[in-house]
Amino acid sequence: PDTLRLRSVSKVYGSAARSVTALNQITTEFRAGSFTAVMGPSGSGKSTLLHCAAGLDRPTSGEVLLGDTDLGELDETRLTELRRERIGFVFQSYNLVSALTAAQNVALPLRLAGRRPQPGAVDGALAEVGLAARGAHRPSELSGGEQQRVALARALVTRPAAVFADEPTGALDSKTSRDVLTLLRAVVDRHRQTVVMVTHDPVAAAYADRVLVMVDGRITQELTAPLTAESV
Ligand code: ADP
Ligand code: ADP
C-alpha cells in the first residue's frame, strides 16, 4: 500500500488579470490505511484538492506523489492508466451507468483497465458491500443506499491504493449514510486502502481518522482521532 503525498501544491485558475488561487501551497500526506475527511466552506478548495490529489487535474506548482510515482512526471496516457488502476472514485450522485446491471457497473473499471473481469472479482466486490444478491439488478431497481454501495464496489474492484469520495452521503438519509460509511470504513481497514472524503456532514467526518479543514485554499486545522460529530 502506498502513501499519497502532496508537497507545496498550488492551483491557480484563470490568467494573471483575473486569477483565483484555489490551493495555496498545500503540504500533507494521506497514509496507506488512513481515512481523511476534508471539510470547509464552499469555495475553500476542497474539490480542487481532491482533483489534484487524484490526478484528475494538474497543480500549477508543487508535487503529488503516490508511493514513488510523481504524478507530474506522467504524460496524459500514463496518468489515465494510473487513475484507472490505482485510484477509485465515489460521487454524491453515484454515477452508475443506468443501462448496465450492478455487476456490469462494477466490472467497468476492470474492462477500462484492459483486464478481463474474473467473475470472482466482481462477485467478491459486490459481496463486500453486502449486495451479493443484487448483481443482476439495474440501478433504477435499487435504493439510493444500494446504488451508492454498488458505486463503492465499483471504486474498489481494482483494489486501488486510494479512494476519493466527493460528498458520498450527500444524497442519502442519515441511517443509509451510516451504513455506507461503516462499509467504507470496514473495507479500508481490511485492505489498508487510503480514503479521502469531502463532506459537509460532521457525522460523516467522524468516521474518518483525521479531518482537514480548508479555508481559502489552505489547510487551517487538522483534527485527529478520536473524532466525534460534536468535535468536528
Ligand atoms: P470547494 O470544493 O471547497 O467548494 P473548489 O475547489 O470547487 O472549492 O473551488 C475553489 C476556488 O476555485 C473557488 O473560488 C472556485 O470558484 C474556483 N474554481 C474552481 N474550479 C474552477 C475553474 N475550473 N475555473 C475557475 N475557477 C475555479
Ligand atoms: P483473501 O485474503 O481471503 O484471499 P480478499 O479479502 O483478498 O480474500 O478478497 C476476498 C474477496 O473480496 C475477493 O473475491 C475479492 O475480489 C474481493 N476484494 C478484495 N479486495 C477488495 C477490495 N479492495 N475491494 C473490493 N473487493 C475486494
TrEMBL record:
The keyword Oxidoreductase does not apply. Residues 4-232 form the ABC transporter domain. One of its GO terms (cellular component) is plasma membrane. Coiled coil: none annotated. Transmembrane segments: none annotated. SMART domains: AAA. Keywords: ATP-binding, Nucleotide-binding, Transport. The keyword Nucleotide-binding applies. One of its GO terms (molecular function) is ATP binding. This is Putative ABC transport system ATP-binding protein.
